[in-house]
Amino acid sequence: MSDVTASATAMDKDKMTSDKSQTSSKKQREQAPASLNMNELRELAELVNEHGFTDFEFENENIRVRLSKMTATQVVQAVQPAPVAQSAAPAAAEAATPSAAEVEEESLIKITSPIVGTFYRSPSPDKEPYVKEGTTVTPDTVVCIVEAMKLMNEIQAETTGEIVKVYVENGQPVEYGQPLFGIKK
Amino acid sequence: MKMKTREIRKILIANRGEIACRIIWTCKEMGIKTVAVHSEADREALHVRYADEAVCIGPPSSAQSYLNIPAIISAAEVTNVDAIHPGYGFLAESSTFATICEDCNIKFIGPKATVIAMMGDKVEARRAMSAAGVPILPGSPDPIESADEAKKFAKEIGLPVIIKAAAGGGGRGMRIVRTHEELAGQLEVAQSEALAAFKNGAVYIERYIERPRHIEIQVLADEYGNCIHLGERECTIQRRHQKLLEEAPSPVITPEQREAMGAVAVNACKKIGYSSAGTFEFLLDEDGRFYFMEMNTRIQVEHPVTEMVTLADIVRNQIKIAEGEDMSYRQEELQIVGHSIECRINAEDPVTFVPSPGKITAFNIPGGPGVRVDTAVYPGYVVPPYYDSMIAKLIVHARTRELAIARMQRALDMMVVEGIKTTIPLHKKIMADEKFQKGDFSTKFMEEFKY
Q1: Domains held by chain A: number
Q2: How close A80 gets to chain B, by Cα (Å)?
Q3: Coil, helix or strand for B223?
């Protein structure tokens, strides 16, 4: 069993979330790898994906790993806090090898957030979402709300097509340029 | 000893580059969480890497990102920060931004918005400083109406004088007058130039100093009216009003002058209700008299030289002041130890100053005794073309000015930057310059300097 699987199993048992409990972080420190290679990163990403998490963070004295599910392909950022004099250029690597599904993913048109704020799928908590997977949109279709500074900004599709992917969760903070929906023309 | 009025656990840094990193370093030392905001062009920036959280706030242009108040405030809200540190430049001296932070219950790390506004208005600042007993350059308080009025002022102020456009700058509508005979003629020329350039022919007259030195005083004030100064910085070596290098203490300022300038600055701070870090910029004339130029209501680029000789951490002080702590330092405790020099390393051609953005293929930071480098650059980093060209500040500290110059020469030799052009060769030449080594220079130094 590789180090990552072992620690993944340990983490799985401890119900890994971004808040680490005292006992689980102790276990992690004992099994903590000094670094992660590509295979280990891929396995870690698959495990996290399997359990349906959108954000995962792990840190010990040697390494900090953050997995953020922004698109169907996971973007892995492994950051080692090295002195600036050494090559500290961060590595952002694709977790999985390109597949047919991912190639198709790349051809989707993305609706991205034009502002920083909080993403909401419906006009208000008790109403239906503006759009769902399968909904057809035109340029004027309101697809979601991004709330910024207490102002509800209606975001329009600005394109025609069918919603096939929703990349963010209701109530999630979004940044400028962050993909919200994937559209197939 | 007053208790803190607020706990700052998380700070958003509304800036980029080396100052964003600088703020993150102190936050890390204080156990404060950090949020970096960045444009799309800065995704791989060092401040983004080292902050605990990062939020992309806009496309590359500064106006749509680092100057975009709604985006920054929104980022502050979604990350739930307690305070915003504006750094220098960008929104650091925007009273609008400071006001909005106050309205949104986010602590702006700096003085009150009203004080920022007052010191940002050149006319208001002069009035306030004059009322606070700060020497200002003798000049006409209102625009000159006639040649006779101009003659009267010139006699009062003493020659040489400079005629300046009220509505603008950049050298247009400006004329230096050295004899009484040429005054009327130069006044007319200046007025028509001002009218053509700024649609406003109003001009002022001010005493002109031929060979001034630029001396500035660092102040620190808490929110209870306590204020101290941390001594002076010499910032005379400039090119087109851009500082190239700075040092502390000044090679020409005596302890008596330091005490006098410091007292004037501290007193003015108390009068205007200043808080946080700030800098008073003075012009020193050939006779050692000093005159107020302007006040910068923020941390400055060259703050490290003051930190080296006083062992202060100015960012730390700013955060503590923002938390409502009272100033526990007394002026008598201030000690200036040794000499510090800072060279601003820019991504520019050292001779033509043409910007040189691009990928840095090799980057060696000098180390060893008394060397500090503030930078956001790393090997493989691509210097973007959208922002200012400074890539690093090389700072040295040694027992004497002579030793500091030798140390700076050594450090410049060890600093290797490949892939882009930098001003390192220019700094080496300045350090080797006889006039510079003697400490004998004015703001005219770079005009007379031969590369």
Answers
A1: 2
A2: 10
A3: coil
Tell me the CA end-to-end span of chain A in Å, nearest whole number. Answer: 45
Which spans in A32-164 are helix H?
38-50, 100-106
Give yes or no: residues A21 and A82 share one domain: yes
Residue with tokens 């180090």: A3
Q: Is A171 on the interface with B (CB under 8 A)?
A: no
Q: Is A8 found in the same domain as A93?
A: yes
In 3-state terms, what secondary structure has residue A111?
A: strand
Point out the residue among B44, B58, B365 whose CB comes nearest to the CB of A176: B58
Burial (CB count <10 Å: 0-12, 13-18, 19+), residue B148: exposed
**Residues A82, A127: one domain?**
no
Nearest CA in chain A to B377: A84
Query: How does residue B199 score in pLDDT terms, banded at 50, 70 and 90?
Result: confident
Residue B132, phi then psi, degrees to nearest 5: -90, 5
- pLDDT for A98: 63
Yes or no: say if B386 and B39 are a contact pair by the CB < 8 Å rule.
Answer: yes
Q: Please name the residue that has the structure tokens 């060259």.
A: B302
| A28 and A10 Cβ atoms separated by less than 8 Å | yes
Per-residue H/E/C for B89-108: CCCCCCHHHHHHHHHCCCEE
Given B126, B207, B298, B401, which residue is catalytic?
B298
Confidence of residue B168 (pLDDT cuts 50, 70, 90): low
Dihedral through CA B298, CA B107, CA B373, CA B218, nearest 10? 30
Last residue of a domain, one of A37, A69, A99: A99
Q: Is the pLDDT of residue A30 over 70?
A: no
Domains of chain B by start residue, with CATH: 10-109 (3.40.50.20), 147-207 (3.30.1490.20), 213-448 (3.30.470.20)
How many CA atoms does the CB half-sphere of A181 hold within 13 Å? 33
CATH of the domain at A133: 2.40.50.100
A11, A57: one domain: yes
pTM attached to this predicted model: 0.80
| C-beta atoms of A90 and B49 within 8 A | yes
Contact: B40, A176; criterion CB under 8 Å: yes
Strand partners, B246: B342
Could you tell me which chain B residue has the CA closest to the CA of A89? B380
* Residue A71 sits in the same domain as residue A153: no
Residue A95: both structure tokens together = 């977790």
CA closest to B50 among chain A residues: A81
Q: How far apart are CA B188 and CA B99, in angstroms?
A: 42
B50: chain A residues, CB-CB within 8 Å: 81
Catalytic site includes residue B240: no
**How far B410 CA lies from chain A's nearest CA (Å)?**
17
For the beta carbon of residue A46, count every other beta carbon within 10 angstroms: 14
Find the domain containing A27 and state its range.
3-99
- A126 in the same domain as A81: no
DSSP class of residue B139 equals B
Least confident span in A60-69, B24-33, B276-285: A60-69
User: Tokens 């005159």 — which residue?
Assistant: B291
CA-to-CA separations, B134 to B262, B267, B273, in angstroms, rounded: 11, 9, 15
Distance from CA of B302 to the nearest CA of A (A): 21
Among A65, A99, A133, identify where a domain stops: A99
